[in-house]
Design brief:
Helices cover 25% and strands 35% of the residues. It has 245 residues and is of the alpha+beta class.
Length: 245
């Protein structure tokens, strides 16, 4: 893509973001196709991360920071704190634990001692099809709580997401994972969830958190805590199943 070529040609201090109105050739994890109609917030952002830094040593955490930034972009607005937008490990944005509203894809290239990161993120702001959108959640909240919160625009939420992400990266670089995990856990969908390992008849395990490198930790009775890598497993939220590929 164009942004992938541009990122190496611009001065280091210059930021780079591409914003799309709609997307027909987007990419998801594992080579999946990502189709996005009008009404979605769609962006690709370039950032540089030093290899010898807290985040440079834990690159898988970036997708978690971006997912958290999207949720915080909405829930940090006064009055919008209780809109039921959440993060699903490793890279999805959810309405409660019921429906996916968006996702994050991170590609990294290491050149000498700098990671060049391309962050693609998209989330449904204003299109009620095929599932639900953020403004539907706001309208639902208004009906249930008697409030008059205004709908949000894709442009506003992209700008807020980037601003929040910059702050989260600063905190992570200064304090490491513990600087952001309390907030991440506040908004994630997995607290107290049980999963099956390997198959629907596999052993039960409890989701306990994510480790220092951003991988999911599960606790299996008698086996202790183990980390599950996102690239080697599919995590089926609908069936609470972790399947080693």
């Amino acid at each position: 893509p164009l942004i992938g070529r541009l990122m190496f040609e611009l001065p280091e201090e210059m930021g780079l973001i591409a914003v799309a109105v709609r997307q027909t050739q987007g990419k998801g994890r594992g080579g999946n196709v990502w189709l996005s109609p009008i009404g979605c917030a769609l962006s690709t952002l370039h950032i540089s991360i030093p290899l010898h830094s807290n985040l440079g040593q834990r690159i898988p955490f970036i997708q978690h920071l971006v997912s958290l930034a999207v949720v915080e972009a909405v829930r940090s607005i006064p009055g919008y704190e209780d809109i039921e937008l959440r993060v699903k490990w490793p890279n999805d944005i959810y309405y409660s634990d019921l429906m996916k509203l968006g996702g994050v894809l991170v590609n990294s290239t290491l050149i000498e001692t700098t990671f060049h990161i391309l962050i693609g993120f998209g989330f449904n702001v204003n299109n009620s099809n095929p599932t639900i959108c953020i403004n539907d959640l706001i309208a639902k909240f208004n009906r249930e709580e008697g409030t008059e919160l205004k709908p949000l625009s894709a442009d506003c939420l992209i700008a807020r997401t980037v601003t929040v992400l910059e702050r989260l990266i600063e905190i992570f670089q200064e304090k490491g994972p513990n600087g952001i995990l309390p907030q991440y856990y506040k908004y994630w969908v997995h607290s107290g969830k049980q999963v099956r390992l390997g198959s629907q008849e596999g052993p039960l395990a409890w989701v306990v958190g994510i480790d220092d490198y951003g991988y999911l930790q599960v606790h299996q009775e008698g086996e202790g805590v183990q980390s599950v890598h996102p690239d080697g497993n599919s995590f089926d939220m609908l069936r609470n199943l972790i399947v080693p590929k």
